[in-house]
UniProtKB/TrEMBL annotation, chain A:
This is LutB/LldF family L-lactate oxidation iron-sulfur protein. Keywords: 4Fe-4S, Electron transport, Iron, Iron-sulfur, Metal-binding, Repeat, Transport. Residues 398-480 form the Lactate utilization protein B C-terminal domain. InterPro entries: 4Fe4S_Fe-S-bd, 4Fe4S_Fe_S_CS, FTHF_cligase-like_sf, Helical_ferredxn, LUD_dom, LutB/LldF, LutB_C, NagB/RpiA_transferase-like. The lineage of its organism: Bacteria, Bacillati, Actinomycetota, Actinomycetes, Micromonosporales. Pfam families: Fer4_8, LUD_dom, LutB_C. It comes from the Bacteria. The keyword Transcription regulation does not apply. Residues 80-304 form the LUD domain. Residues 321-387 form the 4Fe-4S ferredoxin-type domain. Residues 1-21 are annotated as: Disordered.
Length: 481, 205
């Protein structure tokens, strides 16, 4: 007999150590960082727009993508069981992990069982989320990131700041500097041409690929009816890791399922155009369990909950599980472009991170993130699976704990605004009270605004100016016309 | 059975069932997107897309000997069609017994066929079927020469999926290896083959 089990929140690198405004402050003040982000996001926005515009049925693909993912969420338990059965029948071993720590323990144990003290890694958000590299290192296993951007971040002792391009915050000169400092075999005369930097990465990783015994990957999609895993990539580092080692361990969030192999026809059109702004990414690999004589013969899949059941439990927030990690929402977000990815504190930055991280951890643990948005809605417009990010942001703001001063102020405001008479009187009072101050500020600064209010309202003016009431209301002005 | 530890599998599935206590309604997936291409000239589209992503396109099987004459050491799958190698004078390495990664890394090029090609995106799909060999073969050598028959070309991605067996290891290739990781500009040439050459042959001829 099964008894009800409560959905559980997750652990790992999904919590903001600092409130978003505090964490964003140094980034906003860093002019080099802002220039790098501006340049990169502008480039990718233009590329995406061009390749999306050439698809006449783009909206129909989005509708299909959103519906398939809603169907997956509705049927998640049965689809997971189906995936497990198909993958197992094809020769893979399926493992289940309740949280980050359990997933890490499984990967460490599998690596040790394979007798390896190093692994090569394909870029994967799930393994970043569960902090797998740290767990491997603690067990004496070296983890080598092989995606170029992940390699840059790893060599720079940094953390990723973007879902697709973890090193988006560096420009070419900074990348060259990191390579020269940390890559022992980098050529002495390395230039900052992207082609030269890519060549240096190729030479650096070549031997490691050819001799690796264990690889760790994520997966973009896991197909329930066939047990197939799909990895979408560009450089060929994915193919190297997925093909050459004897043992392959893939860490997959439970939400990554698709019901059927045919559903890939939707997502393999949506993802590359939304993500890198290409018609198709250079390489996509699909494998179903073990193929004798071709590729890894010891194939494992680790299905990870780590907070996803908690996201699924909220009918309004649930569509956050539709995310295919394309990062189009980051690239169009005015807040992301200025604050950068590190300010979000989680491996999932930008608009999708602002709704996903607080749901994975519980809103109380990431209470500032739902406010890291202007609610402009650009993220919703570009989302290939039509996640209504602004709606979920507002929903999460309602759940976030509010300070007592704010709650008291809102109660008073609500009482005032409930009656037209009280509202008109309050406006009059505010105008009379602020009149001389407004005139003074206008003379001094040219604007009828206040920069700083006393505590506790100072929290509001820390990152905004307070406009003072105008000398007359629109109704008064209209009455005089 | 009191006190027996619940497996992670059972606990996760139970959590997810609890999370769906609101019983979301069934979803009808609207499939109003194009599943068949009505473009008149698929091959012209294919060539345009391949070249846009820096693959080099050659026309006709007659192009092959000239192409192979520049290749000193060539890897081929065991079932490579004999006429593709007609007149090849270089060092030929058949993948039998399977060539080690290090041995493959020493070769100059690999010559294979493919399973399906998507014109709309310039995507070549390998499924380990005839004349393709295993995955490592087309991955490690720095130059991939791929023979594409015109009857293997479809317009759109949905058409390609219907021709594939999901249980086969599949490799989708769109241009040579590339990265967009530096300032989000695409540059060709990272870990996969840095040169991709396509020989288009007319299957009707």
């Amino acid at each position: 007999m099964s008894r009800p089990v409560a959905p559980a929140t997750g652990s790992g690198r999904i919590r903001t150590p600092l409130p978003f405004p505090t964490a964003a402050k140094p980034a906003v003040a860093d002019t080099q960082l802002r220039a790098n982000l501006h340049r990169a996001t502008r480039t990718i926005r233009a590329k995406r727009a061009r390749v999306v515009d050439e698809v006449p049925d783009w909206e129909a693909l989005r509708d299909a993508g959103a519906a398939i993912k809603a169907d997956v969420q509705r049927r998640l338990p049965e689809l997971l069981e189906q995936f497990e059965a198909s993958a197992t029948a094809a020769g893979a071993t399926v493992h289940w992990a309740r949280d980050a720590a359990e997933a890490c323990r499984i990967v460490v144990a599998l690596t040790q069982a394979a007798g390896a003290d190093e692994v090569v890694k394909v870029k994967s958000m799930a393994t970043q989320e569960i902090e797998l590299n740290e767990a491997l290192e603690a067990a004496g296993i070296a983890a080598y990131e092989t995606d170029l951007a992940e390699l840059i971040v790893q060599l720079g002792d940094d953390t990723p700041s973007h879902i697709l391009v973890p090193a988006i915050h560096y420009n070419r000169a900074q990348i060259r500097e990191i390579f020269q400092r940390r890559m022992a075999d980098a050529p002495a005369d390395l230039s900052d041409e992207p082609a030269a930097l890519a060549e240096a990465a190729r030479a650096h990783l070549r031997r490691r690929f050819l001799s690796a015994r264990v690889a760790v990957s994520g997966a973009n999609f896991a197909v329930a009816d066939t047990g197939t895993l799909v990895v979408v990539e560009s450089e060929g580092n994915g193919r190297m890791c997925l093909t050459l080692p004897e043992t392959l361990i893939s860490v997959v969030g439970v939400e990554k399922l698709l019901p059927t192999f045919t559903d890939l026809e939707v997502f393999l059109q949506l993802l590359p155009r939304s993500s890198t702004g290409e018609r198709m990414n250079p390489y996509t690999s699909m494998w179903t369990g073990v193929t004798p004589g071709d590729g890894p013969q010891d194939v494992h899949v680790v299905l990870v909950d780590n907070g996803r059941s908690a996201v699924l439990a909220d009918p309004v927030g649930r569509p956050a599980l539709s995310c295919i990690r394309c990062s189009a929402c980051l690239n169009v977000c005015p807040v992301y472009e200025r604050a950068g990815g590190h300010a979000y504190g989680s491996v999932y930055p930008g608009p999708i991170g602002a709704i996903l991280s607080p749901q994975l951890t519980g809103v109380a643990d990431n209470a500032s993130l739902p406010y890291a948005s202007t609610l402009c809605g650009a993220c919703y417009d570009v989302c290939p699976v039509k996640i209504n990010i602004p709606e979920i942001l507002v929903h999460l703001r309602q759940q976030a704990p509010h300070p007592p001063a704010e709650r008291a102020a809102m109660r008073v405001l609500s009482w005032v605004m409930r009656s037209p008479r009280r509202w008109a009187a309050a406006l009059r009072l505010a105008r009379v009270g602020a009149g001389p101050l407004g005139a003074y500020r206008e003379r001094r600064t040219g604007a009828r605004t206040l920069r700083r209010l006393p505590w506790p309202a100072s929290a509001w003016t820390r990152s905004r100016d307070l406009p003072l009431p105008a000398p007359q209301t629109f109704r008064e002005w209209w009455g005089k016309q | 059975m009191v006190g027996e530890a619940v497996s992670a599998r059972d606990e996760i599935l139970a959590r997810l069932r609890t999370a769906l206590a609101d019983s979301p309604p069934p979803v009808q997936v609207p499939r109003g997107y194009r599943r068949v291409d009505d473009r008149p000239d698929l091959i012209a589209t294919l060539v345009d897309r391949l070249e846009d992503y820096k693959a080099v396109v050659h026309h006709g099987i007659d192009a092959l000997p000239r192409l192979l004459s520049e290749v000193g050491r060539l890897a081929v799958p065991t079932d490579v069609p004999a006429d593709w190698l007609a007149g090849y004078a270089g060092e030929l390495h058949r993948d039998s017994p399977p060539l080690s990664p290090a041995a493959l890394d020493d070769l100059d090029a690999v010559l294979t066929g493919c399973a399906v090609v998507v014109a709309d995106t310039g995507t070549i799909i390998l499924d380990a079927g005839p004349a393709q060999g295993r995955r490592a073969l087309t991955l490690v050598p720095d130059r991939h020469i791929c023979v594409v028959r015109t009857d293997q070309v479809v317009g759109l991605l949905p058409e390609a999926l219907t021709r594939l067996d999901p249980r086969a290891p599949l490799t989708w290739i769109s241009g040579p290896s590339a990265t967009s990781d530096i300032e989000l500009n695409r540059v060709e040439g990272v870990h996969g083959p840095r040169r991709l050459e396509v020989v288009l042959i007319d299957s009707g001829a």
